[in-house]
Each structure stands twice: as structure tokens, then as C-alpha cells.
Amino acid sequence: MLHVGINGYGTIGKRVADAVREQPDMTVHGVAKTSPDHVAESAVAAGYPLYVAGGSGVGEFETAGIAVEGTVDDMVAESDVVVDATPGGVGEQNRPLYEDHDTPALFQGAEDASVAETSFNARANYAEAIGEEYVRVVSCNTTGLSRLLAPLYETYGVERARATLVRRGGDPDQYCRGPINDILPDPVSLPSHHGPDVQTVFPDLSIHTAGLKVPATLMHVHSLNISLQGDPTTEAVRDLLADEDRIFLVPEGLGLDGPGALKEFARDAGRPRGDIWENCVWAESIHVEDGELSLFQGIHQESDVVPENVDALRAVAELADAEESMATTNETLGMGI
Ligand code: NAD
């Protein structure tokens, strides 16, 4: 049984903890929190041993009546692997802590790629992370793009990808983020940094990206144009993508017109927190003409990286190959909406 410590129990950390708990070959050793707030109470209520990270100290948690097992240092020492799900830049500062205890670690997408030996997407490059000590699970956008590009790359070859990423301003609990009434090119300079991030997974891919931020919290929406080396039919590409376990082809005619309807659909389906781990590719949008594929996809930023973290844990701990790991993760989470 792989003992997994989770350092940083926010949007990603809490979801990764719940996903790890569902796995037959791993267990949550503990989660580390910086402050004794309602999220710390939820972690205890969920049955996760709680460890204290950062400035607050064990005393503040005890004063708040929240029982703790020890400090983050203890958790890292006791765990087989740590998932660092702290805000961007903190993971890099934490790396010496993991090195001191000789504990392998996963980092998340906001860290610079240099924080780890490998930038990871299960569908695209699982094998590169097998047995590595430090692995970065790429961002929500890069995960969404990698999952889509991998089968196209393998089946037809990709000459060039162009993506416009319409990004949510913040997650639902981030009341300080924005814009609240604007549409911002972000970054204004082109191409955006998202393309080079995809190249950490596909080093030879020619990709050009542009990003915008909008007043929404539910999902990102990508508009893609991909020049394929082959010239398949629209139906062939639709069938190819329909075969991917982590792509949900949004059917015509159900009124699933945007992120609001998709999130409602996920909640009605009983998904935890209304999460959608799959890329949501609108089937009607898929169009191929003279080898140029265009489509729209929605990406649930709070959850698409969760199955990838589970697979990255198995790769680092050498518990399974890509196919076996993804099949286990998909089955235990209930992939396929
Ligand atoms: P978050 O702010 O929701 O959660 C981070 C948690 O870490 C917070 O609870 C914070 O209090 C805690 N923290 C801060 N400093 C800490 C420290 N020194 N030690 C331990 N905990 C500490 O952030 P998030 O959205 O979960 O993002 C975490 C990482 O996941 C980032 O790299 C981010 O880019 C990546 N990611 C986020 C999303 C998303 O949309 N939210 C999607 C994919 C990837």
C-alpha cells in the first residue's frame, strides 16, 4: 500500500486526497494545512490525519479545537510519496524538504517546469515518469490539450496546433479574482506561455496559443485548429476521440450548450463536487477540411488534473504501467459521464 502525503489542501489537494482514497493500492497518510479554518475541519471530518504546514504552528490548531498528528515535516518523513498541491512557487520552495527526507514528490502546473525532471500527462508520456523522484503534473489547460493531442499525434501526426484558451477568471471560492465585467487578453503578448508548456510534454510539437480571461468560474473553453499530417474525415476523428476514456464527446440535442449546463449535468450524475475529470469536446464542433481539424472543448479546471495525479503516483512508485494505471484510476473514480 503506497502511503501518500498531500501538502496543500485546497482546490486540487482535497480532490487528489479523495481520489487517492478510492484506489486499491494507495492510502492517504495525511494532509498538511497552513491554517485552522473550515477546510481543516472538513479534512478531519473526512477522516484524514492532519499535519500543520507553514506559520500557524500546532498550537493554533489546538486552540481552535482541531486535532493534529504533527507537522508537515513528520508527514513528509512518514509518507512514501508526497503530492505538493500548494500555490505556484511554494512547491519549488518545498522541494528541499522532500529532498531532506528522500521522499519523492509530485508538483503541480503553476510550478516552473524545472522543478521536476518530467512534466507529466498520463495519456501522452506516462513512461517518462516511471521511477522518477520528482514529477510535475501539468496545468489544467496543458492536461486538456495533451489528452486531445495525444491520439491525433499518434494516429495522423500533427503539423501545427493553434489554440485560443478562454479561461475562467478564478475558481468559485476565489472571490478576489477577476475580471468581473471585462474580457481580457491575458497575456496580451502573443503567443502565450501555454504553448511552451504543452511542449514540455510534446517537445517536437509546433503550437501557437493565445489566452483570454473572462468573468466566469465554471470551466475553461478552448477553440482549437489543428493541421493534421493526414486527411481523415470528420467522422473518423469523431470516432477516434470517442474512443478516449478521458474525453467526453458532448452529444448533440441534450442542451449541453456550455459549462453551466455541463456542470449541472455532472451534479445530476452524482459526481463529487460536480467535478468533470474528462475533456468535454462538443461533438458538433468537430470539423475536418483539407486536413484542418477544428473543435471546441470545455475543461473543468478544478478536477481534470486529479486522475493525472493518481497515475503520476503509480508511475513514480513503479506500481503499474500506463494502461493498467489509467484503467484502475478510471474505474475507481467512475470515469465516463
Ligand atoms: P489553492 O489555493 O486552492 O490551494 C492551495 C493550498 O495550499 C491552500 O489551502 C493554501 O492555504 C495552502 N498552502 C499555502 N502555502 C502552503 C505551504 N507552505 N504549505 C502547505 N500548504 C500551503 O490552490 P490550487 O488551485 O489547489 O492550486 C494548487 C496547484 O495546483 C497550483 O500549482 C495550481 O496551478 C495547480 N492547479 C490548479 C488548478 C485550478 O484551477 N485550481 C488546476 C490545475 C492545477
Q: Name the shape in a single word.
A: globular
Instruction: Tell me the number of structural domains.
Output: 2
Strand arrangement within the widest β-sheet reads 4-3-2-1-5-6-8-7
In round numbers, the mean pLDDT is 97
Ligand catalogue: nicotinamide-adenine-dinucleotide
CATH class of the largest domain: Alpha Beta
The proportion of strand residues reads: 15-25%
The beta-strand count equals 16
Question: Your description of this structure?
Answer:
The protein is α/β, with parallel strands linked by helices and 337 residues long. It folds into 2 domains: 2-138 and 305-333, Rossmann fold (3-Layer(aba) Sandwich); 140-299, Dihydrodipicolinate Reductase, domain 2, CATH 3.30.360.10. It has 12 helices and 16 strands. It has helices at 11-21, 38-45, 57-63, 72-78, 90-100, 122-125, 140-155, 194-199, 234-242, 259-268, 306-316, 322-333, and strands at residues 2-7, 26-33, 50-52, 70-71, 81-84, 105-107, 118-120, 134-137, 158-168, 184-185, 207-214, 220-228, 247-250, 279-282, 287-289, 292-299. An 8-stranded parallel β-sheet has the order 4-3-2-1-5-6-8-7, sandwiched between helices. Strands 9, 10, 11, 12, 13, 14, 15 and 16 form an 8-stranded mixed β-sheet that branches. Helix 1 (11-21) crosses helix 11 (306-316). The longest helix has 16 residues, at 140-155. It is globular, with a radius of gyration of 20 Å. The mean pLDDT is 97. Nicotinamide-adenine-dinucleotide is lined by residues 7-13, 32, 34, 53-54, 85-88, 90, 108-111, 139-140, 171, 301-302, 305.
